[in-house]
Design a protein that fits this description.
alpha/beta; 23% strand; 7-stranded mixed sheet; OB fold (Dihydrolipoamide Acetyltransferase, E2P); Rossmann fold; 439 residues; 6-stranded parallel sheet; pyruvate-formate lyase- activating enzyme
Length: 439
């Protein structure tokens, strides 16, 4: 009998990574085995990203690469955000595509795969519904992606926020929260597996539970979770929507020590003209959080080159960064997206201006980041060890989310997968270095 094999490429954010992990679990339960090279696989699956133009181009390039090189009998399946928004349009752009699976129907992967095996025509295998589905217990898979001793755990999908630049609501639909019992059950499974860090993710974690009639749903979920999984030392919250970090959430983060004093809160800009809002609330929220959580690490993301952004607006952003002193910053140039609220504004700012502002912003933040890191020299912090290279161990502190933040380099060989105390001896722009603290 021909082996049942697949090769899966997951593009985009951690939320996509969770969907990929769930598809892999479904495939594994049906006897399909992952392989490390496309040439070995019967099915070539790309879980695409469609957030902005560069992400779409990367997804299409990967699909075309696999489709152009596929061997007789191999099938190429496009899944994820790109297919959700553009559907059958990508068929014309990717000759040789055999199946389409939208981000809202990741759980149909077996139907698509088995249908292709059974000879169904591609048009019968386009799973592109309009109704969001985050996946409940009946699907029988974890809505989590395990990476070493950490795991991303998805608590909701979709977004109902009105960000003018963002296409996510067009792709994902409105917020659909998972049931608390399902989330807690999966958190216990992760605890039993020895996971040291659970990272809660959604398009907007602070909106969790709104569609279920909850008030302050994220704070309530965190209270239940810390009670349910006392042996998981770290719980990290990502993707908090600006303006919805409540007093109760701050209080829960301060009182429940498993919850890391870390928050990713995309602010987008600092100019009232660009945001069409003032930033007073940001200062109030950050002041409250830093009073309750003295070691708080704050991360944010900004857009440069939004239509109408003047040099004065951009300078306001630089001044804001200097004033607010964020630990981590990401930024990207504005991307024109059809169907978003900002579409009528066009894309008037030249690419070279966007690139120049992006470079200036990141260079400005480097000085701030270095100073924030230098403040840790001489102090001791817990570090999750993730790897060993020669006589240096590599890990992350509570200040570092996987893949997007810095790392801590530790002298000597420490035990991988453990959280150990590290005395910081030096600081770089993004990273720290230290040695194991003596007890």
């Amino acid at each position: 009998m021909k082996p049942k094999t697949y090769y899966l490429v997951s593009l985009g954010c951690a939320k996509n990574t969770v969907d990929s992990a769930s598809m892999m679990e479904l495939l594994g339960g049906a006897g399909y085995q992952p392989v490390d090279r496309p040439g070995k696989a019967e099915f070539l699956i790309v879980n695409t990203c469609g957030f902005i133009q560069p992400a779409r181009e990367e997804s299409l390039e990967e699909l075309r690469r696999l489709a152009s090189r596929k061997k007789p009998g191999q099938k190429v399946i496009a899944a994820g955000c790109l297919t959700q928004r553009y559907g059958e349009q990508i068929v014309a752009e990717v000759p040789g595509l055999d199946g389409i699976l939208s981000t809202r129907r990741w759980m149909d992967i077996l139907q698509v795969v088995e249908g292709l095996r059974g000879g169904k025509p591609p048009q019968a295998l386009y799973h592109l519904p309009d109704v969001p589905d985050v996946g409940h217990a009946e699907y029988g898979v974890l809505r989590a992606a395990i990476q070493g001793s950490s795991a991303y755990l998805k608590i909701a999908d979709g977004c109902r926020r009105p960000c003018a630049f963002c296409s996510i609501p067009l792709i994902k639909g409105t917020t659909v929260s998972r049931r608390p019992d399902d989330i807690l059950r999966e958190a216990r499974v992760l605890q039993d597996l020895g996971i040291q860090e659970i990272i809660l993710i959604a398009q907007d974690t602070t909106d969790y539970g709104h569609d279920l009639g909850m008030k302050d749903g994220l704070a309530g979920l965190l209270e239940q979770m810390t009670d349910a999984i006392p042996d998981v030392p770290w719980i990290r919250v990502m993707y908090a929507y600006p303006g919805y970090v409540t007093d109760r959430l701050i209080s829960v983060m301060a009182e429940r020590k498993q919850i890391l004093p870390y928050l990713d809160m995309p602010l987008q800009h600092a100019s009232p003209a660009v945001l069409q809002a003032n930033m007073d609330w940001v200062h109030r929220t950050v002041e409250k959080m830093r009073a309750a959580l003295p070691d708080l690490a704050l991360r944010s993301t900004f857009i440069v080159g939004y239509p109408g952004e003047t040099e004065e607006d951009f300078q306001m952003l630089l001044d804001f960064l200097e004033e607010i002193q964020l630990d981590r910053v990401g930024a990207f140039p504005f991307s024109f997206e059809v169907g978003t609220t900002s579409e009528p504004l066009g894309d008037p700012i030249p690419r070279e201006v966007k690139d120049e502002r992006l470079e200036r912003l990141m260079l400005h933040q480097e000085g701030i980041s270095l100073r924030r890191n230098q403040a840790w020299v001489g102090r001791t912090m817990p570090v999750l060890v993730e790897g060993i290279s020669d006589e240096i161990s590599i890990g992350r502190s509570f200040r570092d989310a996987p893949e997007i933040d810095g790392m801590v380099m530790i002298e000597g060989r420490a035990e991988e997968g453990k959280i150990i105390p590290v005395q910081i001896t030096s600081a770089l722009v993004h990273d720290l270095a230290g040695r194991v603290a003596l007890s």
